[in-house]
Amino acid sequence: MPKPRKMLGSVDSPYIISLMNLIETQSKTTIAKWCIDYAEEHILSIYKKAYPNDNRLRDAINASNDWLDGKVKLPMVKKLILEARAAAREAEENPAAQAAARAVAQAATTIHTTTQSLSLAFYGCAAIAYDRVGIDEKAEVYEQIASEECTKMEAALRAIAVENEKNPAKINWYC
C-alpha cells in the first residue's frame, strides 16, 4: 500500500488560487488570526482524538494568540511551535493526526511567516480527508474533500476580512 500524501491540493487548483488571492488582500494579523482560529476550531480535534493527553498543539495555538495580543515574546512562541512540529513527526503511524499536527503547527507559524498560511489548506485538507474517509480512497475523493474544505476556509477568512485593507501582507508565494 502506498503511503498517503502529506498534503492535499495543488497551487494550481482553482480553490487554492482563490484562497491565495483573498489572503493577499489581508494584513498579516488578520491572516494569522484566521489560520490559528480555523486550525483550532476545525483541525485540532483530529489530533486530540488520537492523542488526547498531548497538549503541544494547544500550547502552540495559545502562545500564538498570546503573541498576537502582545502578551508574550516571539522566541517563547517559536519554542512551542517547534514542539508542535515534533508532535507531527511523532504521529507517523496516524496520517490524519500527523496532518492535523502539521496544519496546526504551520497555522501557529503564520504569526511570523505569512506564506505558511497555505499550509493550513494543504495539511488541513489532508487531516480532514484522512479523518473522514481514511487513506485508501481514490484521488478524486480526496480532491473533492480538499475543494470543499478550502471553500470553507475561504468563507471563514471572508467572514473576518477587512474590506479595502490598507496594509495587506506582502507575500511572495513562490520564493
UniProtKB/TrEMBL annotation:
Residues 22-154 form the Imm-5-like domain. It holds the Pfam family Imm5_like. It comes from Cellulosilyticum lentocellum (strain ATCC 49066 / DSM 5427 / NCIMB 11756 / RHM5) (Clostridium lentocellum). This is Imm-5-like domain-containing protein.
